[in-house]
């Protein structure tokens, strides 16, 4: 499946800089990385993707192997055959799977606050089903939508994330494939069995939020097995949405990682 892509770069690219590809997390979309794209697009090509069932991409069944193939197909279609991959949460798992399935595509890999294992958006399984069951009225304003979402989501920041996925006004509806996402939640929260010997030997950086629990010591052995050259950095005071909560700190880590290319 070809994914919707926000493709930004300098007016006169040098052709030497490796492109950067951003992959969002559950219920997000490519434009969530706009802060970083705007800063980096002055000097190199940047591509922010909408994964299937998200943003403006098409809908369909989801698992990490399939989503990684979507990314691979889309990048090839865009003429990108090697890139620095930056993925958050579900996008981080997709980036990891891309690196394992197509290592030649991935020059370097940055994974934001997720590990290769069970975990990610702890309330996601139940939440997705409850969101899919919501009944929209004939007309819906942003304030009314926030009130409706508050019946199933208590955290304002999560509601703000979800509001971007609703077409408001007359005949409101979900823009995202909420039913497909709900059906795929066991795969999204989980992590597939990786055959022995299948590794990604490129530079891999895991960036954890200090207040998050999605990267834990029990994950380190699998991280080392699959990504033997991995390093881990922690952003103090950040939770799971490390890039949104601490954008300047995350940008500094990302910039340093890119410069090592």
TrEMBL record:
Residues 19-247 form the AB hydrolase-1 domain. InterPro entries: AB_hydrolase_1, AB_hydrolase_fold, Epox_hydrolase-like. Keywords: Hydrolase. It comes from the Bacteria. GO terms for molecular function: carboxylic ester hydrolase activity. The keyword Hydrolase applies. Pfam families: Abhydrolase_1. Gene3D superfamilies: alpha/beta hydrolase. This is Esterase. The lineage of its organism: Bacteria, Pseudomonadati, Pseudomonadota, Alphaproteobacteria, Acetobacterales.
